[in-house]
């Protein structure tokens, strides 16, 4: 009997001893080994004469973990490092790792004749990782200038390209600090901006532009890691910077290696010995009881869970409860993303018209492949839209799987374009958007935004390009890629500014504090667009009025409403329209206050717009005039009248929000500005 017990004991103990011995050698080897990430990212890479290292990495030569997302470059002919930006390819001429900047120029050389054919465009900088130095100069190309320039000798010296042969397409080129820029812009109706950093060297305008400019990067500083003996890299699983060290990855820098090595050797030898003692005692005490108990435990827990399979299957047919579309079906619906089916584009993707196999007309957003945060934007928009249901918010029909070849979002198709299209775009026609339609657009948009704020969501990109219209001119607010959930127990969220130039809350831009009042400011710009028919940013306006918010505040302070409100709406000829548009201008003025505390809430804005539209508006006004001594209810504010002396003093003392022209790098791109901190 004892022999049987001994045999059973040995049969139980020997596998354990084998395991412990194996663990000992494995741990000892592991303690002495150099981390794989450190080894891989230690290999030097060059392209031409440049040393390529973090944050840059060469495609097909570097491991992606050795660089920062969005800084992948290609090495053309083993001589030219090429960086792709949204507006085209750029050659990296030099890299200054110490101050995190690099010198770039267009891969396709600039020819001054290009400006006449409109074949060049503004540079589009992904501001989540790059920015122009504050002192960077720029050249303004003013296009389609008036033929009056033939008589203006002062401006003739600025003509470039084809201007000499074709006076009907006069093009001027001026530096951003040229005193003649404002004067010249009054004669031209379009502008393009090219940042420049190397003025000396000859070659005229072409030479200056082709010598390129300097960009700074925002990626994590690598100097601390390198000084500690590590190699910089990026962990895509946690989406954080890592310092790859000989022992393991660290957050910022390596720790002294000798102390770690002794500790590891001690652990590698001591731990297996301790394990042997503990397991031996355990086995001797438990013997057969342990064996049988373990067997019973395993048998009791290996029964299959029928829900696990169904959960796995459902993950391929639904995303946050939405239907999953196959990539092939959406390629077919858009005729392989035909350019003729393109509806528009923005900071995160291009939208195409499509028709599904079941006959439904849809709008399909194709997220940019170069945007390394597209997955986060994809999930953000899906998660927010699936929790919201409102008649004035665009409906999301479904999306592709996260493991699909591309990330695609499928929305309901809104056929009548955007408010921007109808106000000052391709669909702008005199009389097409009457005042009753415009006030309805304002109310429906305010209703949607008030609903978002009540749901603890900030839109962050309120603009007329994101307000869609159906055939009945009903509003559908779209584009939630920048939106943020806003916890109801905090006053603001700290995040790097994002949005579209001309609409961004100046306090958000200065203090990096996002609140619901940031949407209120942007909606104030929308209100001014509705009453003026002017775009939020227009380079052809006077320098101080390029930003529509600046223009509006200036006109309202002077009570020059006739210089702000579109006369085609009936301002000045229709008493009711005049009173209503003036009241909306005053409401917009309150929304555009520099300090967020001075702005009304979105609910208050909605209440005021409904009061302006209501049939009782006129009678209320007359009643207030007849009973000037009576108390005015808090929910009803008096209609606008010319301000008295105290009011005028208050208006003049208000600070104007900064014009985007004051910072060249912040407005040269037409698209929404994404940011890494989102």
TrEMBL record:
Signal peptide: none annotated. Residues 337-612 form the Protein kinase domain. InterPro entries: Kinase-like_dom_sf, Prot_kinase_dom, Protein_kinase_ATP_BS, Ser/Thr_kinase_AS, WAK_assoc_C, WAK_GUB. Residues 669-678 have a biased composition (Polar residues). The keyword Transmembrane helix applies. GO terms for cellular component: plasma membrane. Its EC number is 2.7.11.1. SMART domains: S_TKc (SM00220). GO terms for molecular function: ATP binding; polysaccharide binding; protein serine/threonine kinase activity. The chain crosses the membrane at residues 12-32, 265-284. It holds the Pfam family Pkinase. Keywords: ATP-binding, Cell membrane, Glycoprotein, Kinase, Membrane, Nucleotide-binding, Phosphoprotein, Receptor, Serine/threonine-protein kinase, Signal, Transferase, Transmembrane, Transmembrane helix. PANTHER family: LEAF RUST 10 DISEASE-RESISTANCE LOCUS RECEPTOR-LIKE PROTEIN KINASE-LIKE 1.4. This is non-specific serine/threonine protein kinase. It comes from Durio zibethinus (Durian).
């Amino acid at each position: 009997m004892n022999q049987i017990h001994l045999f059973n004991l040995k049969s139980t103990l020997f596998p354990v001893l084998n395991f412990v011995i194996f663990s000992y050698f494995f741990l000892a080897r592991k303690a002495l080994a150099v981390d794989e990430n450190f080894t891989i990212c230690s290999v030097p890479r060059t392209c031409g004469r440049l040393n390529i290292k973090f944050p840059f990495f060469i495609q097909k030569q570097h491991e992606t973990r050795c660089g920062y997302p969005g800084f992948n470059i290609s090495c053309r002919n083993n001589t030219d490092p090429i960086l792709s930006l949204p507006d085209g390819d750029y050659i990296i001429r030099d890299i200054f790792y110490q101050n995190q900047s690099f010198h770039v120029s267009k891969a396709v050389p600039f020819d001054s004749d290009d400006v006449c054919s409109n074949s060049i465009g503004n540079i589009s900088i992904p501001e989540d990782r790059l920015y122009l130095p504050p002192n960077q100069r720029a050249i303004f190309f003013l296009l389609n200038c008036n033929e009056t320039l033939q008589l203006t000798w002062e401006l003739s010296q600025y003509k470039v390209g084809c201007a000499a042969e074709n006076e009907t397409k006069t093009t001027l080129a001026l530096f951003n600090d040229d005193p003649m820029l404002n004067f010249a812009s009054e004669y031209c109706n379009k502008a393009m901006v090219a940042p420049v950093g190397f003025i000396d060297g000859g070659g005229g305008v072409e030479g200056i532009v082709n010598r390129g400019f300097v960009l700074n990067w925002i990626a994590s500083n690598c100097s601390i890691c390198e000084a500690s003996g590590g190699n910089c890299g990026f962990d895509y699983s946690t989406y954080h910077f890592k310092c790859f060290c000989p022992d393991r990855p660290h957050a910022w820098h390596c720790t002294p290696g000798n102390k770690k090595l002794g500790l590891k050797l001690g652990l590698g030898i001591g731990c297996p010995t301790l394990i042997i003692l503990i397991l031996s005692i355990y086995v001797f005490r438990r013997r057969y009881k342990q064996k049988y108990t373990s067997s019973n435990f395993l048998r009791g827990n290996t029964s299959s869970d029928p829900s696990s399979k169904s959960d796995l299957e459902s993950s391929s047919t639904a995303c946050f409860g939405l239907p999953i579309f196959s990539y092939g079906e959406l390629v077919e619906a858009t005729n392989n993303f035909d350019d003729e089916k393109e509806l528009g584009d923005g900071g995160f993707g291009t939208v195409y018209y499509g028709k599904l196999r079941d006959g439904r007309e849809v709008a399909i957003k194709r997220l940019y492949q170069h945007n390394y945060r597209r997955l986060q934007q994809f999930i953000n928009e899906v998660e927010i839209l699936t929790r919201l249901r409102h008649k004035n918010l665009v409906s999301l029909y479904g999306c592709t799987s996260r493991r699909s070849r591309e990330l695609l979002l499928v929305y309901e198709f809104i056929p009548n374009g955007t408010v921007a299209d109808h106000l000052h775009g391709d669909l702008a026609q005199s009389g097409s958007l009457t005042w009753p339609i415009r006030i309805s657009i304002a109310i429906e948009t305010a209703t949607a935004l008030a609903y978002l704020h009540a749901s603890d969501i900030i839109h962050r990109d309120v603009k007329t390009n994101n307000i869609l219209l159906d055939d009945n001119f009903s509003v559908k607010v779209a584009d939630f890629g920048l939106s943020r959930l806003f916890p109801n127990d905090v006053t603001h969220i700290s995040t790097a500014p994002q949005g579209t130039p001309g609409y961004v809350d100046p306090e958000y831009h200065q203090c990096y504090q996002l609140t619901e009042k940031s949407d209120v400011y942007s909606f104030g710009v929308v209100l001014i667009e509705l009453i003026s028919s002017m775009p939020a940013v227009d380079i052809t306006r006077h320098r101080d009025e390029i930003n529509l918010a600046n223009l509006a505040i200036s006109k309202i302070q002077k009570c020059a409403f006739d210089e702000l409100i579109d006369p085609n709406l009936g301002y000045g000829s229709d008493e009711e329209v005049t009173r209503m548009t003036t009241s909306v201008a005053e409401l917009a003025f309150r929304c555009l206050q520099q300090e967020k505390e001075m702005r009304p809430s979105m609910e208050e804005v909605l209440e005021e717009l409904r009061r302006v539209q209501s049939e009782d508006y006129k009678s209320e006004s007359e009643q207030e005039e007849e009973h000037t001594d009576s108390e005015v209810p808090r929910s009803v504010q008096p209609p606008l009248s010319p301000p008295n002396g105290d009011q005028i003093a208050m208006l003049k003392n208000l600070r104007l929000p900064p014009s985007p022209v004051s910072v060249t790098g912040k407005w040269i791109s037409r698209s929404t500005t994404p940011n890494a901190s989102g």
